Amino acid sequence: MSKVTWRGGALIAPVPPAMITCGTMEASNIITVAWTGILATVPPKTYISVRPRRHSYSIIKEQGEFVINLTTEALTHAADFCGMYTGAKIDKFTACNLTKEDVPGFSCPMIAEAPLSLACRVTEVVPMGSHDMFIADVVSVHVDETLLDADGRLCLERAGLAAFAHGEYFALGRSLGKFGFSAVKKKKHRRQSDPAANKPQATVDPTTDAVDNKHPADGLPTPVTADTHTAPTPSERPPRSDRKPRRPKKDKPAAGRSKDTAKKKKPKRT
Ligand SMILES: Cc1cc2nc3c(=O)[nH]c(=O)nc-3n(C[C@H](O)[C@H](O)[C@H](O)COP(=O)(O)O)c2cc1C
Q: What is the Å distance from ligand 1's center to 5 Cα?
């Protein structure tokens, strides 16, 4: 791939065109923000970056709270509108025909039509240049119950979320695979008569972790082939004498295991 080089610019894409609610139930406002994301999983920390001249800026700074409402395809027109007009002059809830919904323990409302709303409390305001970064704790998450399956797992893929990339809105397309799909080992081909051959392969289930408020990556064993950039380099590895002693080599497979199911040697990291 041959690349041209430009000076630094804010060109990460896609990002969420999030609708941020602030103010009170009586005097509320919505500002669309693309500069947002997750800072930490535990405790759940987020940020929004807002220009100080925005009407919402002083509201959020004074009140110390806001709600991140995720935008769907159906909400994209409203998201763009809330990013074009200032709440200093119009009531964006009324103009966009959106419904205010109470957030327990918060003064500002969430958007009832949004499938997922994260109620956030500001912990720090960090000047960044053009924008100030509001770092906040995600205090509560409010999910449209129609997005939960029979086991209470969140099926966010059903929400029809929108993305923003290089000045344009997009609907999320087809799934390319679940989290960790690259690390799931393929089972060796077995004979049809082998009952184990029909068992489903072990897969990573990120939705379970999401319901538990955990990032799917937390607590999982390091995949053999993934995340090689965090693997210790040879110079970082402890000297051989500090490592666990090697187990003696066994010629035969372990008792009770067939040759097929005996533990396979992990491939070496690259
Ligand atoms: C897709 C989109 C993304 C935006 N992202 C940001 C942002 O990250 N930070 C910001 O300060 N303004 C952002 N804006 C601009 C504000 O949403 C816009 O100035 C808005 O009218 C401010 O509303 P307010 O004056 O009621 O606060 C964005 C606008 C759009 C349409």
A: 28
The H or E element containing residue 79 is helix 76-82
Quick: pLDDT tens for 231-269.
Answer: 333 333 444 444 454 555 554 444 334 444 444 444 444
Ligand 1 pocket check: which of 21, 22, 29, 32 to mutate, most ligand atoms within 8 Å of Cβ?
Answer: 32
Location of each CATH 2.30.110.10 domain in the chain: 18-171
Q: CA–CA separation, 205 vs 255, rounded Å?
A: 32
The topology (CATH level 3) of 18-171 is Pnp Oxidase; Chain A (2.30.110)
Please measure the distance between the N-terminal and C-terminal CA atoms of the chain and give it in whole angstroms: 23
pTM over 0.70: yes
Max distance between CA atoms of the chain, in angstroms, equals 80
Q: What confidence tens digit (pLDDT) does each residue in 81-107 have? A: 999 999 999 999 999 999 999 999 999
- Note the residue count of the chain: 270
Cβ of residue 87 lying under 6 Å from some atom of ligand 1: yes
